[in-house]
Amino acid sequence: MKSCAIVILNYNGEEMLKTFLPSVCMHSQFDLWVVDNASTDASIDFLDTNYPQIQQIKLTENFGYAGGYTEGLAQIQGQYDYYILLNSDVEVSAGWDSVLIDWMEAQPDYAALQPKILSWKSKDTFDYAGAGGGFLDAYGYPYCRGRIWDSIEKDQGSYNDTIDVDWASGACMVVRATVFHELSGFDSDFFAHMEEIDLCWRMRKSGWKIAYNGSVEVYHLGGATLDRASPKKMYLNIRNSLSMIYKNETSSRFFRIFLVKSLLEHLAAMSFVSQGKKEFSKAVLDAYRDFRLKKNSIEKFQPNLDGRIEVKRQGKVKLVFWNWKVLGKKSYDQL
C-alpha cells in the first residue's frame, strides 16, 4: 500500500487547472489524481496533453463536491494510507504534503488535518474556508481563527501553531483513508458545502481527533465553483447544516438548536426582503422546506467507538453570530 494520494476534484475547471497545477506538480511528493465530475469543457484534453503523469478518474455525472469525492475515492480504496483532498484553485508551497503526512504518521489518534489556508489574491490575509483552524459554536455555526462570519483577519503569525479543531477545511485536508471509508465518506446528499464539517463531526463522535498545522501554508482562490455570496450557496449551507445537526445531535438537543436557528434564519429572510434581495430570502425558505421534506429519511449517526472515546467540541463560543453582529467581536482573539 502506498502512503498518500493527492486528489483534486474537477468540474469544468480547465482555467483553474492551468493556473494552479504547476505549483502542485512542482512541490508535491505523492501521487497526483484528478477526479472529474463529468466536465463538459476541455479539462480532460488539457490534462491528457499537458499532465499525462496525473492519474484520472472519470465520473459519469456531476456528483458535486461530496458525491464526487466519495465516488472517486471508492475507486482507489485500499491503495493508500492517506488522501489529501485539494481544491483545484489552491496554490501549494514547498514540502507542504510531506510535512502534513509526516505529522499524521506520528499522530495515530488523528483522522484529519488541515494546513494554514491563506487567500491567493491577498497572501497576507486568511482565506474564508478554514483559515487558521475551524470550530463550531453551540448551535452548529462554523467559525475559524482568522475568520469570524464575514470578517477576515490578516496573518500576523498568531496561528503558526498546531492545535485540535472541530473540523478541517475541504479546500485542503488530509484524511486517514481507512476512516474515510469506514464512515462512508462525505454525505452525497449534501452535494456541496458543510460536507467536510459533517464528516469531521462523525470522526469526532467515533473517537478520532481533528487538527490544524500552521507550519504549512497554502493559498486558496475561493469561489471558483460557487460564489460565496450566492443564493445557491446560502441554500446549500442552511439545508446541509440542518441535516448535519439532525444527524449528529440527540433529538432533544436538535430541537433546541432548531428553534434558535429557525428564528435567526427566518429573521434573516425577512431582512433580505426589506433589502430587495428576494432571491436570498427564497434560498432560506427553500432550505427549510427541503430539509423538512427529507428529514424522515436522514439516519441518525451511530458511531462505532471500538474502544475510543468521543472527542467533544473544541469551540467554546455559544453563538458566534451574536458575538459578531451584536457584540461587534470581529476577530478570534476577541471571542
UniProtKB/TrEMBL annotation:
Domain Glycosyltransferase 2-like: 6-117
InterPro entries to which the protein is assigned, alphabetical: Glyco_trans_2-like, Nucleotide-diphossugar_trans
Claim: Glycosyltransferase is one of the keywords in the record: yes
GO terms, molecular function: glycosyltransferase activity
Keywords, sorted A to Z: Glycosyltransferase, Transferase
Family: Belongs to the glycosyltransferase 2 family.
PANTHER family xrefs: GALACTOFURANOSYLTRANSFERASE GLFT2, RHAMNOSYLTRANSFERASE WBBL
Protein name in the entry: Glycosyltransferase 2-like domain-containing protein
Lineage, opening ranks: Bacteria, Pseudomonadati, Bacteroidota, Cytophagia, Cytophagales
